[in-house]
Amino acid sequence: MSASTATTWARALGFHTPVLAFALRTALAAFAALLLAYALELEHPHWAAMSAWACSQPMREHLLSRGVYRFAGSVVGVAFAVGLVLLAQESIWVLALGLAAWSALCAFLGNLQRGYMAYGCMLAGYSAAMVILLHVGPVAAIWPFAWDRLLTVVTGVLTAVCISWCFAPRRRTAVLIAQSRHALAGVLQAAIAPLRPHAAPAPAPMAALLSRLAEVEELLELYPEGSRTARHTSRAMHWQQHRALDLVYHLGLLPRAEAAVDLAPEGPAEQLVQALESLVQALQAAPEPEQAQALRQCLQQAIAACEAAVAAVQAAGQAVPEVLHALYLLLQAMHSGWEAEQRDLQGQRRPVAHERHMAPLPLHRDWVGARQAAVRAGCTLLLLGMVWALTEWRLVAFGMLGLSVMLLVFSGFESPHRTMAFVLRGQLIGAALALLCQTLVWPWAQSGWQMVWMLLPFALLGGLVFAHQRTAAGAMDTNMAMFILLAPVFPQTAGWTQHLSMALAVVSGPALAWLVYRGVYPTNAQRRLHTLARMMLAEVPALARRLLEEGRPALWPGGSAAAALWQAQLHHRLLRLVRWADKTQWPARGQLHDLGLSLRAMQTALLQLQQWRRDTILATPALRRTERLAVQALQRTVAWGGAARDPRQQVRLQAAWRALSAQPGLPPALAAQALQVAQRDFPALEAVRQQLP
After folding, report:
1. What is the DSSP string of 67-109?
2. DSSP H or E segment with residue 594
3. CA–CA distance, 360 with 237 (Å, rounded to integer)
4. Residues forming a β-bridge with 468
5. Which residues contact 279 (CB under 8 A, 6 or more apart)?
6. Separation of alpha carbons 452 and 45, rounded Å
7. How many CB atoms are closer than 10 A to CB 385?
8. Which of 89, 412, 445, 560 is most buried, with most CB under 10 Å away?
């Protein structure tokens, strides 16, 4: 049968043909890990098969990174488990309390991380649970049990890496780079319009630009895994995203100005437009090697044209517009990013010196979700641990093991309770396959080796379940549940009732987790979006509160550097919020550009107002009145951020900032900002807040 015929038959039977080869390869790797672990006489060889399934990834770099984090997480978790068992001295109460606290800590740290680092933190939590809850016997027996856990993990990881490395392709670098360049080209097209407003075509709406940048930001989540070069490329792309959003912010201010703004004299502006148009065309081309130098030349020409425009503005005795400054910084970031992208496309391993020292941007961390995950995991496991301590029933401990995996690994998912439905279905299939093997196949085995070889068809069935369209969701848990139940011990002494009770204990994990996720801090994509939006809105009253607490003579700690870090984090949060809004089709997603614009403007206005308060000597009654109105505006900003929503707060807030803007003692630029806060920024923030439950 030819390859094309086999592919046609596989599609007709409902299999994902690109996934089928990976699934069968991983199934064979899991069986090979089981075979090797049994040959090494490890006590739990089926754990090696589970590790092989858990660390396998379709791309080489992700395969290596996930394997490293699986090993590291297992070492940390096993070390904690050994210490806790030695401390507890067979006290189930101490074990339950220690495991609940450790799981809460791992859930908290894991939800703050990105990429496979989060997986490593979660694994440290349930690796400790596996050692603590499955250990039977005296305290001294914990050492061989812990070593068995580590050796099975190493066996599974190494087997999966060795087998999959020969077939797994490298990451498709050109796909992400092309998407990033297309998004940046859209931002540059929007920047051309104010330079030549009558001749340039209409740019894409700002909401569309944000959506394209947000898609790139989501792809950067796992891109740097397994490669130092890709890690530096990802860092350079984050800087490009930050500079692009800064330019989008300043472009958003231009249409709101009362008069037209001349960004540059006519001649330099026309040259800059031509250079940007050439750069846009080069960015929209495929990232092929023959196009690399052309893109670099276009970048250099655009940078030179932007510098010439800035020089012309300065020669005329005018201040350089913020748009030109933001455009120049974006072009510089793109030039640095071009160098990193070319090394990544060429597969070079060592970045240059200035890239190795490129500062990382402060990205968003979900502190609210992390606290909720910690409380959810810790309290649930503590409650079940108390039941275990009171009853001393081993099946409760076995159920706690499955529940700990569910509450840790899936706590960062988009909608954990919906995921639990697929996980439960997958584990039911895995438990059914395990029961078939234990009751119908293994009774025919005459030795332990025969029991191991009899597992081969079931391992391949697990691969087929993974690749089929109807069972793909939750198929990973099919294999995990099947292998955790299939411990090849000859002779087999357990009866079918014991096998059934163990299977029910395993599948009780996702069932209980579904109830927990529904009842304790229930979360889904919509709630995550609302939480992130509230965090962003809370930044404004929080900053106002800090400025009030510092008093008039103080300055915001960190000055402009702290403000720049706050802006970088705001940009990353805005992209996350846009991505969540696009996924959930949030009705207010069209207002997110105005939200980002107003948050940036509010931060700038508050800090400049505080600077004025610090530097001004209140020598006249007019200045003292302005100071009192400034304090009143800050106080009402803090009150607006309170938990209770009072429509009168919005009216009082706008009146306070409007009254402040009318004071003659305030500098004109700051007065204009205060008026914009009253007329534009707070209404935009309030419009988004009204969409939140």
Report:
1. HHHHHHHHHHHHHHHHHHHHHHTT-HHHHHHHHHHHHHHHHHH
2. helix 592-615
3. 11
4. 15
5. 185, 188, 295, 298, 299, 301, 302
6. 10
7. 25
8. 412
pTM: 0.87
CA angle 594, 597, 599 (to 5 degrees): 105
What does each C-alpha distance from 208 to 186, 188, 256, 567, 687 come to in angstroms? 9, 13, 19, 21, 20
Q: Write down the number of H helices and E strands in the chain.
A: 28, 0
Cβ 80 vs Cβ 102: under 8 Å? yes
Residue 257 burial by Cβ neighbours in a 10 Å radius (0-12, 13-18, 19+): exposed
Q: Tell me, what amino acid is at 435? A: L
> Which CA distances in Å does 259 have to 16, 254, 255, 283, 677?
58, 9, 9, 33, 19
**260 three-class SS:** coil
For residue 121, the Cα-to-chain-centroid distance in whole angstroms is 14
User: How far apart, in Å, do the first and last CA atoms of the chain sit?
Assistant: 59
Looking at residue 141, what DSSP letter applies?
A: G
**CA distance linking residue 364 with residue 165, whole number of Å:** 33
* CB-based contact 211:585 (threshold 8 Å): no
Placement of tokens 């799981």 in the chain:
103
Retrieve residue 626's tokens. Answer: 């302005």
